[in-house]
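Problem 12. The chain below contains 191 residues. Write out its predicted structure in token notation.
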Amino acid sequence: SLGSTVYMVWFLVSLAFLIRLALQVAGVNRLRRLLKTNSWLQKTATSIGHRIGCSRIPDVRVIDVAMSPSLTGCFRPVILIPKRLTLEFSQEQLEAVLAHELAHYRRGDHLTAMAGLAIRSLCWWNPIAWWAYYELRHSQEICCDAIAVEKAQVPKGTYARSLWSVVKWLDQETAVRVGPSAAMVSNSPNR
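Solution.
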């Protein structure tokens, strides 16, 4: 019947979304074991984390991938910082990036985002679920900006320039990797 077909489609698509989410969580756990820490980044994160009220400081790992710095994971989240950022950004810029990611941790955004993804996975057919998740993430970013500036005491100008530098850096990295030879570029020793 039509009702059981609709139910089966909903179930299979929801299951696919939830499996994808579970694989992402498992991937973060593998990354934690494989990626190296940077003692300066970890010490800096500890200092900033205490200023903004973190009871525990997540591990900071350096990843050799062009991606946005991020707090990722569910129960033992990790902050991922692209290796090239650690080489190209000033200490002040890296502190601003860490303040932003630690603000996400302090607020529990990694857990809220995971719950939002789970709900969106079950309500994948509903555009309001997708919109609500987008709005949730947007609100999280705005709140973290305020925490980084106010509690971590990153000067507003420095913070804005640092985030803008991340956006420009990502735009340049993406431009380099577009095209048929993207795999060769991303695996070249100079990257």
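Discussion. Confidence is low (pLDDT under 50) at residues 177-191. Students who got a different answer should revisit the alignment rule from Section 12.3.
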